[in-house]
């Protein structure tokens, strides 16, 4: 978590030091930071037994890039999801509440595009592809998978200008990832989040 915060601070410092676009326009630098809440699910199964859980999730997400053309930005993505309030664990055919079972977090690293639809008053659509890693702690698996899960994300939202170069926004974001381990089976996750963001253009 400390390393992620340091990296986000470095990204922010680079973004604010870079040249900006013309006022109230989508060109030049693109930097976005978002945070939100939503539904997150996780499953780890090896074909004989499985553990499933779902509940409240918290997401931090950042994008940094440049507009290839007006209204179309190419960027790197960095995301972090914390999972909590998981409901149950399932081993084979038995089902019970396991108060010791929880998924700590997942980290997402990737690249994507964001497009602001002209004449649509700052409505945007975004997509990304990347890799995800899971840090888990439960009765059957404890550890970090590393960044080995293929993952993708989709987002749609709207922003409002608050200055010549800064906009505040709200969006809905979906992310899904999957990773296979010969020793520990399949790790799958998905989330849908309501995000609130600040964007520097």
Walk me through the structure:
Helix content is 8%, strand content 66%. By secondary structure, it is mostly beta strands. It has a single domain, classed as Porin (Beta Barrel), CATH 2.40.160. The longest helix is centred in the first third of the chain and has 16 residues. The relative contact order is 0.21. The mean pLDDT is 83.
Assembly annotation: single chain
Strand content: over 45%
Query: What is the succession of H and E elements?
Result: HEEEEEEEEEEE
Helix and strand content put the structural class at mainly beta
Widest β-sheet, arrangement of strands: 1-2-3-6-7-9-10-11
Q: Class, according to the CATH hierarchy?
A: Mainly Beta
CATH topology: Porin
Distance between the termini: 27 Å
CATH architecture title:
Beta Barrel
- Let me know the largest β-sheet: 8 strands, antiparallel, barrel
Let me know the number of strands: 11
What's the topology here?
Blueprint: H1 2-17, E1 29-45, E2 50-69, E3 72-83, E4 89-91, E5 94-96, E6 102-116, E7 123-137, E8 142-144, E9 149-161, E10 166-181, E11 185-200
Antiparallel strand pairs: 1-2, 1-11, 2-3, 3-6, 4-5, 6-7, 7-8, 7-9, 9-10, 10-11
Concise synopsis of the structure shown:
This protein is mainly beta.
Which terms would index this structure?
8-stranded antiparallel beta barrel; 66% strand; 8% helix; Porin; 11 strands; 201 residues; elongated; two-stranded antiparallel ribbon; mainly beta
